[in-house]
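Example 9 (inverse folding). The structure is encoded as follows.
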């Protein structure tokens, strides 16, 4: 059964948006595993900090259908269709990995190109699935994270529950 790894991030009511997204994901896919949440500055534009995390779950469906479900959840959480890539958002769900699938699929690329270059993606994934082997780099995720320059890309753990909206 294909395991899906999804990065979730928000900088518009981030705690409320991410908690709603997690509830919707749990309604679609049982047995979610969730990394800690981390705050980090916006990249590519000036805006409020993001809160990011990674979610894993069994996803025994075609990748195209999984991407459609993720897009629907983004919409249910207030993401406007056609929202600019570099701007504030209520929710961003990026499919990082889906089983061993690689290459282009439905306008996306797997593994997600940012997986090895963004601390807020690689760090939470390494926490969640350290022994997972990247299907293209052919290295364990924890090894890739251990070599990552964390000083240049600091992550600050934050609580989702009990924080401000």
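The amino acid assigned to each position is listed next.
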């Amino acid at each position: 059964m294909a395991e899906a790894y999804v990065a979730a991030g928000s900088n518009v009511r981030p705690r409320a948006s991410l908690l709603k997204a997690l509830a919707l994901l749990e309604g679609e896919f049982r047995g979610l595993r969730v990394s800690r949440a981390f705050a980090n500055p916006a990249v590519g534009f000036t805006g409020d900090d993001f809160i990011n995390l990674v979610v894993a779950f069994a996803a025994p469906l075609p990748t195209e259908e999984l991407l459609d479900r993720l897009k629907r959840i983004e919409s249910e959480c207030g993401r406007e269709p056609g929202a600019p890539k570099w701007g504030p958002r209520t929710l961003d769900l990026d499919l990082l990995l889906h089983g061993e699938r690689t290459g282009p699929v439905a306008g996306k690329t797997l593994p997600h190109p940012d997986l090895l270059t963004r601390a807020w993606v690689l760090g939470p994934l390494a926490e969640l699935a350290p022994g997972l082997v990247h299907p293209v780099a052919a290295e364990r995720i924890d090894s890739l994270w251990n070599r990552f320059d964390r000083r240049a890309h600091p992550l600050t753990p934050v609580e989702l529950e009990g924080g401000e909206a």
